[in-house]
Amino acid sequence: MKHGSTDEDTMKAEPAAGQRPMSRRDALKAAGLVGAALSTGAVSVRDALASADAMEDLVAAAKAEGQLNVMALPRDWGAYGAVIDRFKARYGLTVNELRPGASTADQIEAIKAGRCKADPQTPDVVDLGMSFASSAKEDGLLQPYKASTWDTIPESAKDAQGYWYGGFSGALAFEVNADLVTKIPRDWADLAAPEYRNSVGLAGNISSNQAIQSVFASGLSGAGNVEEAADQGLKFFADLYQKGNFVPIIGSANSLADGRTPILIRWDYLALGDRERLKGTTRIEVIRPRTAAVAGV
Known about the structure:
Number of domains: 2
CATH topology of the largest domain: D-Maltodextrin-Binding Protein, domain 2
Largest sheet: 6 strands, mixed
Oligomer: single chain
Radius of gyration: 19 Å
CATH class of the largest domain: Alpha Beta
Helix content: 25-40%
């Protein structure tokens, strides 16, 4: 991402034409208020090329088509880069990496837009929040596909019929630029302190599962129960904004390092990756909040 604030950096989520926009509260309830307080994270979902009875038939069909469209698979997430490269080498297919930074809402809209027509921008493989994957299945947007390692995936991390499965797991954490932040925050309430003015950012577009779960986790810390977490989380971030602590841009390793968002809320495995990658240039501390530890598959 480029340095400096631009329209592209500013958080926003536009609804598709003719559809009611999804409010932040709707999104929070969809993503966080399903199941247990230990909420879900990201899952890999196969939505096409999945009806063949045998792997040989599936491979043949894929080679006949000649390419595979994947969306929202950043190369530094869950080793996606290595997986994509091995896939290309093994099957000789072109893999079109569409919009690696697309949010869950973006992906669902892309699938809907490409239904019943040949559209080169329609994704075959997407990465969604687990509860969104369940609703996408109910809406008929996915097709079943069981990976070769299907039996090793815990039952709680996959759809019994193969419509989605968990690809990796992590927990939300504070990624802190310790070169710029002298007092390291240890819990959600700490982020409201005056010393963190113009410091706190969310990684990912506001409609992304990562950002939604971050707001949910903050509310869970304050409310202490799942039922009130969505509303409390929205109030928490509204308060951060009013205090001048929340920075309304799409946070990234760049904004962390250059000081625009020296405190970034994101999945711990991404924060740990940044710490390793920026070693020697930026001193990063990764802190898991003391309360409301929200993790996901």
